[in-house]
Protein 1
Amino acid sequence: MKNIIATVLFSILFSCTDNQVMQPYDKAQKRAEINVKGYSKPDAVQLRLNGSPVAINGNNSYADKIETQITFVLDEGETDELGIYNSQTGARIAKYDISYHNWEDYKNLYFFNLPDIFLKTYAVKPQVNLGKVGFEFIFPNLGEFSGSPLTHVKGVLKRENGVVLAEFDNIGKENFTAVKIYNFFSISAPVYLELYKPGTTEPYTGSGIIPVKIKQDIGANMIVIQEKTENGTVVVNGDIDIVGYL
């Protein structure tokens, strides 16, 4: 009888077909903590984890300043999707694929959502003393139309007469530069940002300098630079100042 029982058990344990693979009962797991700091105006947004809304202070949609911590368990070999959606239209604005091995890349997740602009950064209005002008820049679509492979550019801010007001060594795609401050001199005179390859005096794209006309306001200015095309020619605009949203 013992031999018969042993034979039956042996048959059960090794009766898998060639296409079956025995899996371990328990998978390795990690606890993920994602710290979210965002801003959205005027549209409300919704965070969804694997399709399920994330509630913040009891609300499933939120606007203006958005801060929360999302905690969940990650299984090795699986991916969890964290998405940002427009609450009114349901359109997905951004998606983050978070796994057992990469979750720390998303430990601190920042975003700034405005009409037609989504920045993967958190914006804080800089402090600028009375009678001074401060500028910060970000270039989120660098290379989209110019084809430039650069991840950042050098910017030189000048008056119309060519006098240099400030230099920015690293204007990149994901974060605003540090603020540069100078004395306010005119409410009507524009200033121009010239863009170069880092560490050079060569235009960042093409053969000629592309001057970006920028309106200066007394106090803080946080300018989003954007590549666009006009009649087949690449141009760069700097007409969006997000300070008005903060």
Note: Residues 30 and 74 are 5 Å apart (CA to CA).
Protein 2
Amino acid sequence: MVDTELVKKTVALMGGFDDEETEKYNQLILAASLSVSELLDKSTDEKDARVIQLAAAKAYNSICCIAENAESITSFTAGEITIKQDTDLKSFADAVLSAAMNDCRPLFKSALELDEANGFAFLGV
């Protein structure tokens, strides 16, 4: 399985989280690590930096989805002063995840192996 401690450290760097904040996302980090492990070819080193990056990007993407839904207020005005939050973390997280997926494509199981693992293979008519 992908090393969740390395994934936690990478997620913390991506989000600028401290240890306490990162701990809140343990379940998402574990799920992302397991998900990535399922995709990898048997010969792939699960401590490969690309693998860690992919698991962290998957977890960070989930964290950004949660944060985006929780933060419904993007601006407020008090008198003549307006404060506006203009960050688009979800787009950033999507771009990081997409890049990480592309980097890891050579490390994934073949499509046939994935189908066999799921118990289904469509080989022809």
Note: The chain has a mean pLDDT of 82.
Protein 3
Amino acid sequence: MIEILNELVTNRQILFIGIWYGLPVTLILIILFFIKSSRDERGRAIIGKASIISMIVFIFLVNFFAKISDSIPITYDTVAFCVQWIYDIVLTVEAAAILIYKKIQ
């Protein structure tokens, strides 16, 4: 398992995929923050709930990275990979949670 993870975090192509994936997700999240329906009390509550979920995911992923850092060699590529994908996953969870909560309410 560690060998597969080591190969994954040193793969520059997957790093570049994460970089290009992060751009549209960032733009989507910014749009979701500033649309008119997000500026009222209900919209702020939705963003707050989604932010709590994404913070829990962030804490989990950072602790996972800290745990695996003992098992894999830490280089620029591995740190860049982990930080980029933690960013991408947290933003994806935030955007998905906002859309799900808006659909529910």
Note: The CA atoms of residues 48 and 98 lie 9 Å apart.
Protein 4
Amino acid sequence: MYKKRFTGILVRNLILMAIPQIIILVALIFTVMNTRNHKNVSTYEMDDLTQQEAFYIGDMRNVIFTPEKLSYAGFDSVADDEKMGSYYFAYKDGKVYFFILNNESAKKADRGEYSKMKFRIVRDKPTTEHIMNEYIESLGLQGASMDGTGSIYIMDQLKYPEMWIIALKIMHYLLATALLALLLYLLIACRLPSITRQARSLKKYGKVKAVITSLDRELRKKLLYKNGNIYVTESYLIVEYISKVDVVLLDDVRYISKNIIEGKKKRRFQLTLSNVEKMYFEMFIDDEQTIDDVIYYIRGEE
């Protein structure tokens, strides 16, 4: 337990207020990590086009693949009258495989430049059959069967969830950074409680560090009354909560009043301390005797 009692209150409140934040951050980090490891977000290396179906069935649909040679299929992918990409195909081991490349990759493919690309494997039998039928008609082979000649899967560069994967990665790093920053702040604030938010309100009484030292001394050597979260010393009234600590310098108090507040189920008592020039403080409590005791020790008389 802290020998410096007021310092101990600040540190305890700091830790109690931080615990929910730490729990939330840790939970979010694990959620993002699990999401990043999910098959819908993970990206896998694919070495051969014949692996297409196995990857799709295995729910490993985001892949990195390096095409060897692609030919323009004569169709474009258009959205809102804007060309988003183009259909290309590759021929391997007697089978046609289809690709959708974005405009930049399409230009490179036209120049014969190929590098690792990221795709989403999409099952789209109607589209692939339509393209194959167009080729049959252009070759004058109407009625010819080309079942099994064309793959029913498309390597779609436009549907690869690039932004979502990047967003999850950034979110992961930001959350981890926020957690480390919070832990670092806790470490520093436990050593220097004068920097905490709850201590800032003490500036009105002088330098925060000096006021904390004074409060520690008052609680250790000049404590007149304590009941629960309420302390009265020779110089201060201190009321501690988890979210804040109210400190009133008794030299500032000029007026004291006790009021009864009638509620629907029970009555409460209000203690008001005020000074027209400097301060106003009010406290609510269910126990009238505690209010009377606080007033007694503040006034020094009944």
Note: Residues 52 and 153 are 7 Å apart (CA to CA).
